[in-house]
Specification:
The protein is mainly alpha-helical. It has helices at residues 4-50, 52-62, 69-76, 82-97. It starts with a helix and ends with a helix. The mean pLDDT is 88.
Amino acid sequence: MVDLTVLQPISWFTAAIGVCVAAFYYVMNLRETTRNRRASFANSVLGNFMSEEGALRWVDILSMKWDDFDDYVRKYDSAVNRKNFAIRAAFWTTCESI
């Protein structure tokens, strides 16, 4: 016949192993979730750059010409040229989120 003093440590050991396995599973699940979130974020942000709209935004930004700050304000300030401001804001906000 098995004594209770032998069964009790076996029960504790089994419970401890179960807790360790659960903790390991939880950590691995968290890592996988984080990896998936990073991948989906990268896809959504890079989708803005790789799309036709993103290419057109980049061309619009590159085609801006000015001599000094006052010339820039006269041509491209948000009060004067709202469309150009929206293009710049969309592009730089995407860059900043990366």
